[in-house]
């Protein structure tokens, strides 16, 4: 399967393993991952955030309930919400999540946004699990014609040491553990370049109740809700 599907499948497998009830996808773009996660029966709250409203709106109708959802109401309740905003800003609507996914997001952040990102995601949202994927620049040697970055909007592409040192420092600072893996295997004989997409899975070391998290963090909302569906 294409690489983006392997990344989405990786997240689906993670949901199957940890059974989170509340999942937020940061940099959700056209909401394809959210749409896939809608079918995971453990999830009761699904939220997307993106800085670009037009891309979120393109296919967001797929997140609306279908006639069958009304005719055969499921046991679980499901609320799907889309917000317009930046991962460089805190908003209380992002509190209380179990799993936060950042798939191919960080390489699109300006230096100033990337600097604020750990405090927003790990410090403020502080979910039990965070998954971050980003290109592995060591793999680029296998792409003919890629001279600098794989995509013109990328602000950087990290090799494994660069990503892992950033991730380990972030995990240390916010009291998470982190494990590294990836998707997109290199061809036989080229194994030394590593996965095409590198992935860090962060797990919070100490449990935190959502009540304590929220009472300590009175912050005014800055995101704009652009879509909401209740199943
Ligand atoms: N996660 C999706 C996927 O894997 O298919 C989309 C990844 S796309 C390459 C990166 C997305 O991040 C874009 O939709 C972009 O608008 C969004 N983005 C860029 N900067 C952002 C920011 N500061 N806050 C939130 N989203 C941002």
Q: Could you outline the blueprint of secondary structure elements for this entry?
A:
Blueprint lengths: L2 H16 L3 E5 L5 H6 L7 E6 L2 H6 L8 H5 L7 E6 L14 E5 L7 H15 L3 E7 L24 H15 L1 E8 L13 E8 L5 H6 L8 E7 L1
Parallel strand pairs: 1-2, 1-4, 2-3, 4-5
Antiparallel strand pairs: 3-8, 5-7, 6-7
Side-by-side strand order of the widest sheet: 6-7-5-4-1-2-3-8
Name the CATH superfamily classification.
Answer: Vaccinia Virus protein VP39
CATH architecture call: 3-Layer(aba) Sandwich
Bound molecules: S-adenosylmethionine
* Spans of at least 5 consecutive residues with low confidence: none
Sheet having the most strands: 8 strands, mixed
Morphology call: globular
Number of contiguous helices: 7
The assigned structural class equals alpha/beta
SSE series: HEHEHHEEHEHEEHE
Summarize the structure.
The protein is built from 7 helices and 8 strands, in the order H-E-H-E-H-H-E-E-H-E-H-E-E-H-E. With 231 residues, it is of the alpha/beta class. It has one domain (3-230): Rossmann fold (3-Layer(aba) Sandwich).
Describe this structure in words.
The structure is a single chain. It is built from seven helices and eight strands, in the order H-E-H-E-H-H-E-E-H-E-H-E-E-H-E. The longest helix is centred in the first third of the chain and has 16 residues. With 231 residues, the chain is α/β, with parallel strands linked by helices. It has a single domain, classed as Vaccinia Virus protein VP39 (Rossmann fold, 3-Layer(aba) Sandwich). The mean pLDDT is 93. Strands 6-7-5-4-1-2-3-8 form an eight-stranded mixed β-sheet, sandwiched between helices. The two termini are 31 Å apart. The chain is globular and about 55 Å long. The chain binds S-adenosylmethionine. The site of S-adenosylmethionine has 20 residues, from helix 1 and strand 2.
